[in-house]
Amino acid sequence: MAPVDTPQRTSELLRVATAGSVDDGKSTLIGRLLLETGQILEDQYEAVERASKERGDGYVNLALLTDGLRAEREQGITIDVAYRYFQTAQRKFILADTPGHEQYTRNMVTGASTADVALVLVDARKGVVEQSRRHAHIASLLRIPHVVVCVNKMDLVGFDEAVFDAVAAEFPGAHAIPLSALNGDNVTERSQSTPYYTGPPLLELLEELEPAPDRDDTAFRFPVQWVIRPMSDEHHDYRGYAGQVAGGTVRPGDEVVLLPGGARTRVEAIDTLDGELDEAYYPLSVTLRLEGEHDVSRGALIAAADSLPEVVRELEATVCWMAQAPLRPGARLRIKHATQTVAAKVESIDRRLDVNSGEHEDAAELALNDIGRVRLKLAAALAADPYSENRATGSFILVDDSTNDTVGAGMVA
Amino acid sequence: MNSPWGHPAPSSDGNGGPPGLRCHHRVPHLRALEAEAIQVFREVAAEPGKAVLLFSGGKDSAVLLRLAEKAFWPARFPFPVMHIDTGHNFPEAIEFRDRRVAELGAELIVASVARAIEDGTLTDETGPRASRNRLQTPVLLDAISDHGFRAAFGGARRDEERARAKERMLSFRDDFGGWDPKAQRPELWGQLNGNVKPGEHVRAFPLSNWTELDVWEYVAMEGLELPPLYFAHRREVFSRDGMLYAASDFVERLPGEEVFEETVRFRTVGDMSCTGAVRSYAATLEEVVAEIAATNLTERGETRADDRVTEAAMEDRKRDGYF
């Protein structure tokens, strides 16, 4: 079969997270992005039109398109993360649409955890409110590489430059755009009403941003998911370590260390069904063959020999707590880090972050949606990086043994 | 804005690291999606393990099979393939299923709706609008529990339908196979929690982030074979509710529903009783990709009667344990 050459084939994947409530115009902005990139098809638009009429909304309520659950449509709120997809000739975008309310902080953290870009919405009429600050704090905490502040509803303040500047000044280091999601100003087309804004419209900006550039700059990390041993006639002695590159680059011949044991060896080959590779890097899923025989199983971490993660029995981490019952010192949980799961005990809870102000306060426990600094004691050694170095090997989830629920998410300090 | 914990504020230009260090590899989005799906396959095969791959003979399950093959190569993937056979399948899909499974040397389990009807466990719907769509759910759940499967891989995509857009990569199912959208396990940093208790299972959806166009482009890129149903062909059809259905022994026609010949293809492959055809001359992969890229109707809206019943048809069926 002849391969098809379409422009999409060379496009990259960019993960975008939005946070906000219906009032910020978040749904309108998403609806606008989907409409302008041709993702809302006739039957979907007609269904939304019909449902809007039945509800007596008086306008085509694009929020109905993004709110997927009956309860969300009934209450007119976003409760859980929804994923949307749109595509331009340059890129494919995965948009995690997360709720903005404080009681859904955990859902916001979930959507933001893998994002390359966070869109923080600000209503130009209201200026920067608690919710926008919270979103920016969470984006910063999760180290989302790019934050774009969308100063929306600029049409309602006469596209006043002073209003825009005041908002932008509160987010140094972020890219701010004055826009009107309703009219389309600076969404896909440069607006005539904002001569003071010289940057690109939102979609163009999203097409240009580097997706998570830090992953390439970091040291090579490869958590072993599965040991491949075919034991077939053809591959009788084959032993390969399957996983996804979590950071850095690896080439055959590279010296690596097998953690937590600490054995040193070299990479013999990088295998895929499509043939051997000269190099592998984030986010490729490959199988590594190593020189010599080693005791490596699922849970091991193969790391660059010249830049090793720390092997620890204790962790200090920033934890977002996601369960109804509060987290207290002494709690016993399971920690799933990369591909390894070990028992953990909470030694202490040092402080809590006020996500609205960014201030720390002393705390003895973490309630649902709280984010705080926690010290954990581990039953077995883990090879971990600081979250600031690697989002994959520097993060973990906490699982409650009795319910099997995911009750917390942590970032290694 | 001051960052908590003393981190520097995120940079706006992407040049966060020291200058000159950045060497960003451009990974085409299909390769990124492929890597993500392979990661899910390996993770679920390990935790909770005891998995099965649900295969319908359609394009999504063809892609799923290919990804499973890649995830464990050069070993064979460590789980069987299962088909929930309604007895109302397109014969081309069954033929394709049997050939692919044989090529891969995989084990095939067929769970039969027809047998459950013969046993008297289930009652067939009757009349011109009869469908076995709902009957698939109890057969699927029984098969999962009879075999003791703790995980079932499915080809569902979030772009298919808005309730699916809310579902996690790993969809936890209780003793009754039901989905509770308000009690989903958060998935952070691609970290999956596949822990289940006896009687419970997870549905794993490695194609969650794929769109219909991604699937087609991947089929083209990999040169995958699909059942001929997906390409334009002459077929005896009749028209109902604005959709074209294949004339078959499985569907009773209403008065006035005349059979005629048309050049059509299928965008989805489900039961003959609920899958509509579209008029199309797209006979090659290239032509199909071009057609999908230009379409203005969603695949489920255009060709699936089972999703048209109510505004929340998919959410309701998922709560009951549907795919």
Pick out its properties.
heterodimer; A: 413 residues; alpha+beta; Rossmann fold; Elongation Factor Tu (Ef-tu), domain 3; 3 domains; 6-stranded antiparallel beta barrel; 9 helices; 18% helix; 35% strand; disordered N terminus; B: 323 residues; alpha/beta; 6-stranded mixed β-sheet; 4-stranded antiparallel beta barrel; 30% helix; 15% strand; globular
Distance between the termini of chain B: 45 Å
Number of strands of chain A: 21
Give, in spatial order, the strands making up the sheet with the most strands of chain A. 2-3-1-4-5-6
Q: What is the CATH homology-level superfamily of the largest domain in chain A?
A: P-loop containing nucleotide triphosphate hydrolases
Quaternary structure of the protein: heterodimer
Query: Helical content of chain B, roughly?
Result: 25-40%
Q: Number of domains in the coordinates of chain B?
A: 2
Task: Determine the strand fraction of chain A and express it as a percent band.
Answer: 25-35%
CATH superfamily of the largest domain in chain B: HUPs
Distance between the termini of chain A: 51 Å
What count of structural domains of chain A? Answer: 3
Describe the 3D structure:
The complex is a heterodimer of chains A (413) and B (323). In chain A, strand 20 (395-399) and strand 21 form a beta hairpin. Chain A is 18% helix and 35% strand. Chain A has helices spanning 26-36, 42-55, 63-66, 70-75, 105-112, 130-141, 161-169, 202-208, 214-217, and strands spanning 12-20, 82-87, 91-99, 117-123, 146-152, 175-178, 221-228, 240-244, 249-250, 255-259, 263-271, 280-281, 285-290, 301-304, 310-321, 332-337, 340-353, 360-362, 371-384, 395-399, 406-412. The termini of chain A are far apart. In chain A, the strands form 4 sheets. Chain A has a 6-stranded mixed sheet, sandwiched between helices. Chain A has a 6-stranded antiparallel beta barrel with strand order 7-8-13-11-10-14. In chain A, strands 15-19-17-16-20-21 form a 6-stranded antiparallel β-barrel. With 413 residues, chain A is an alpha+beta fold. Chain A folds into 3 domains: 7-212, Rossmann fold; 216-304, Elongation Factor Tu (Ef-tu), domain 3 (Beta Barrel), CATH 2.40.30.10; 310-412, Elongation Factor Tu (Ef-tu), domain 3, CATH 2.40.30. Chain A is globular and about 70 Å long. Chain A contains 9 helices and 21 strands. By secondary structure, chain B is of the alpha/beta class. Chain B has 2 domains: 29-181 and 196-213, 3-Layer(aba) Sandwich (Rossmann fold); 216-307, no CATH class. Chain B is 30% helix and 15% strand. Chain B is built from 9 helices and 10 strands. Chain B starts with 28 loop residues before the first helix and ends with a helix. At the A-B interface, helix 2, strand 2, strand 3, helix 5 and helix 6 of A face helix 1, helix 2, helix 6 and helix 7 of B.
